[in-house]
């Protein structure tokens, strides 16, 4: 069934868990995620990021209706979320397709500009009755802003979100949740992730809203537990799911038929998503 972020955050807050948000660029991603969520009877988030379009991988106007249809048919609450929207016209396209949630990412803008643009994005979210996530602080990895895609693999503390600024930002904009920078990286990690758990706690206490962790792939299960204990309620996870599918196909191939390869990839991705979800929702006690 279709849900928005506030509905799934209610469940997450009660159970002190995080909800996984998974980017989808093909039908096998959607199947893998929903099969895992239904198996565990847990809510989930299907996300489409504006960057996928820039990379010529998938198109919102094609993926969006399929995401909404599959979310409606699911037996668990499913949020259909536009991830990293950098322009409001693009975000509105998603909302017109029936997305229940959006992220406006103005993190590459100067602070005051980010506040102003996020306020406009909040007004748009209200118009459509959907939830909104926004971001302050800078994250390492691949980023899309108005100048296109940039890549910076180095994460340093000067990029981290400042708790006082985060408090001010949430008060001024009224966003439902906040994506923050505390050491994670978008895409693959080239060094051990070094997360600032005390900062997560401070951000959570100062803002009073759920904290969103981007760059969730490649973080150890132990670290997931720690960020969740400190107030993270949404974890964006994509790269390792997609990689699990790619690895399985490479190992078990070659294939003559694409549909055979796609099935192998889908099953491997479902396993990877299930393992991540079990950790996020505290159902992994007996699993290594
Ligand atoms: Zn992100």
TrEMBL record:
One of its GO terms (biological process) is carbohydrate metabolic process. Its cofactor is Zn(2+). Dihydroxyacetone phosphate binds at residues 187, 215-217, 236-239. Binds 2 Zn(2+) ions per subunit. One is catalytic and the other provides a structural contribution. The keyword Signal does not apply. GO terms for molecular function: aldehyde-lyase activity; zinc ion binding. Zn(2+) 2 binds at residues 105, 135. The active site is at residue 83. It comes from the Bacteria. Zn(2+) 1 binds at residues 84, 186, 214. Pfam families: F_bP_aldolase (PF01116). Keywords: Metal-binding, Zinc. NCBIfam families: cbbA. This is Class II fructose-bisphosphate aldolase.
